[in-house]
Structures are given as structure tokens and as C-alpha cells.
From TrEMBL:
It comes from Pelagivirga sediminicola. This is tRNA-dihydrouridine synthase. FMN binds at residues 72, 145, 175, 230-231. Belongs to the dus family. The active site is at residue 102. The keyword RNA-binding applies. Its cofactor is FMN.
């Protein structure tokens, strides 16, 4: 059941996906405390990280005593990718992950060597040049996250996986959609099986996996060695530990209820204020509060999500959570 990337063992094969604007240090820390095999940072633009732009450095922040944490890098030039990998490793990253899966237009819209994210799947030779540069630069394991291909006419994930393995990649995560699908339709877990058959390194299935039932089906159809959960953890930081318990018998998480849930959310909220500063933290925290408050009284929820005062938010939370339905859902 446990995965090991050379000298980096993972407690379980249930991993937290990189989510832009979501998997910051406060959220990763919370998910890690409940139990996760690996947590991955938000996608970080390699050149901006090297140029010491504060927003990129913040995304790579690992905190003290970081658990198994990967820093995910995106870019289109080998020099910047390699330098960013060195910086991330020096900052404590246990794993460097290369982004070849982001479908966002602002990441993929450039042509040729200027394209990044899933657009790299249209130019495997250039993609391999970047992979080789990062592997040479890092002494920690390097992993890769990609999609099935650019579109239905370019399902080249198995070929890229073979070449990536030969270049030194230690694990591959595949989102079961093409880039042109974005997040529409359903993830094709069965299509990931071709990647699994192409390589000897661990393959992780990703896309539409939210609970133990979907995880079991994804594993059965893909033959993958583990699963990666993204949106299923929003508002449920214990979700990964719960899936790992049901599939692999790891310790069951204590899902907070009542006062314990109020305390957990309050602590997460205050951690975001500390990390971003009060002015920005209040705004960044709203998305997380919105997920936590699904099913709460509509008026209280709206008051919390529009409040500019942290004291007001913390004062209203207990009442809103007391009226929420499906606390452990």
C-alpha cells in the first residue's frame, strides 16, 4: 500500500492535488494533520519564483517541519525551471512536481516554446527538455502531472510517460481528461490504464475522485497505484484521510463535529489571516468559509462571507455551523 519515491516514503497512496488559490500553506497543513500521503503546492510560475516575486515565493512556502510536500513548478524554459527547482529544494520541498496538466488559457495560449501547462503535451520534445533540466537540477525526486493529451486526436500520455520515466521522473499523475475538455464531462479513468501499462514507476489517477467509492472505481478502471483528490477536499480537509482509511486501513480521522468543528474552522481562518495578513487574508478565506458553510442558514452565511471584520466572522461561525445540515458529509 505505501508508495516510496526513492528515499521519500509516502504514508498512503492518497494525495492532495495542487489547486490554484486553494492549496496554500494553511490548507496543506490542515490536510496533512488529518492524514495525507502527499500534499502539493499551488502551481508556481518558475521564472517569477526565481525573480523573487513575493506571490510566487508565498505559494512555495512550506512552513516549519513540513510533512511530505511537493512544490509544483510550471514554465516553458529549462533555465527557469531548473533554477526554481533548486530554490524549492533549498526551501525544504521533499518532491518537485512538473505541471503539464493545467488547461488554463493564460498558461497554454502561447505558441511553441512559450507554452506551458498542458500545452507542453503538444510538443513532447520540448517537454522532455524541461523534464531533463529539472531532474538534473534536483536531488529530491521529480514527479510529473499531466492529462491524457491535448485533445482526442492527441492522446499521447503513454508515450510521454515512457520518455519521462527514462529521463528520471519517479511518479506520474494523470488527470483523466484532455486539455480541451477542461473540467467538462467525466474523467476517463479507464484511459489512464494505458499510461500504467507503459511505465514501471507509480501512476496516480486524478479527476472526479471525491470519496472512497469513486476512488475504488478509479483504481479498478485505471490500475493505478494511488489516487489524487482535489475538489473533493474543499470544505472537507479530512477527506483524504477518510478515503485512505476505507481503502487501505490507515487510522480513521476524527471528523470534527459541533464545538470541535467550530474550533477547526476558526483556527484555519486565523492561520490564513496570519499567512496573508489581515486585509488579504479576509478575502482569501472566503472561498474556504463558503465550502465549510454549505447547508448553513443563508442569511448567516451571507453575513460571514461579506464581513470585513475577523471578529465578526469568528463571532457568527458557531451559530451558522449549528444550523448547517450534513456536518460530516
Amino acid at each position: 500500500m505505501p508508495l516510496s519515491l526513492t528515499d521519500t516514503p509516502l504514508a498512503s497512496p492518497v494525495l492532495l492535488a495542487p489547486l490554484a488559490g486553494i492549496t496554500d500553506l494553511p490548507f496543506r497543513s490542515l490536510v496533512s494533520r488529518f492524514g495525507a500521503g502527499l500534499v502539493v503546492s499551488e502551481m508556481i510560475a518558475s521564472q517569477e519564483m526565481v525573480e523573487a516575486k513575493p506571490a510566487m515565493r508565498d505559494k512555495a512556502e512550506l512552513g516549519l517541519g513540513a510533512a511530505a510536500t511537493a512544490v509544483q513548478l510550471a514554465g516553458c524554459e529549462a533555465h527557469w525551471m531548473a533554477e526554481a527547482a533548486r530554490i524549492a529544494e533549498a526551501g525544504g520541498a521533499r518532491i518537485i512536481d512538473i505541471n503539464m496538466g493545467c488547461p488554463a488559457k493564460k498558461v497554454t495560449r502561447a505558441r511553441g516554446s512559450g507554452a506551458a501547462g498542458s500545452a507542453l503535451m503538444r510538443d513532447p520534445d520540448h517537454a522532455l527538455h524541461l523534464i531533463e533540466a529539472v531532474v538534473r537540477a534536483a536531488s529530491v525526486p521529480v514527479t510529473l502531472k499531466m492529462r491524457l493529451g491535448w485533445d482526442d486526436a492527441c492522446l499521447n500520455a503513454p508515450d510521454i510517460a515512457r520518455r519521462a520515466e527514462a529521463a528520471g521522473i519517479r511518479m506520474i499523475t494523470v488527470h483523466g481528461r484532455t486539455r480541451c475538455q477542461f473540467y467538462k464531462g467525466r474523467a476517463d479513468w479507464a484511459a489512464i490504464a494505458a499510461v500504467k501499462a507503459a511505465v514501471r514507476i507509480p501512476v496516480i489517477a486524478n479527476g472526479d475522485i471525491t470519496d472512497a467509492a469513486s476512488a475504488r472505481r478509479a483504481l479498478a478502471l485505471s490500475g493505478a497505484d494511488g489516487i489524487m483528490i482535489g475538489r473533493g477536499a474543499q470544505g472537507r480537509p479530512w477527506a483524504l484521510a477518510e478515503v485512505a482509511h476505507r481503502l487501505y486501513g490507515t487510522p480513521a480521522p476524527v471528523v470534527p463535529q459541533g464545538a470541535a468543528l467550530v474550533d477547526m474552522i476558526g483556527a484555519h481562518y486565523e492561520a490564513m489571516l496570519d499567512f496573508y495578513g489581515p486585509a488579504l487574508g479576509v478575502r482569501v478565506a472566503r472561498k474556504h468559509l463558503g465550502w465549510y458553510l454549505d447547508g448553513a442558514d443563508a442569511l448567516l452565511r451571507r453575513q460571514i462571507l461579506t464581513a470585513d471584520s475577523p471578529a465578526t466572522v469568528l463571532h457568527l461561525l458557531p451559530g451558522a455551523l449549528a444550523q448547517r445540515t450534513g456536518l460530516a458529509a
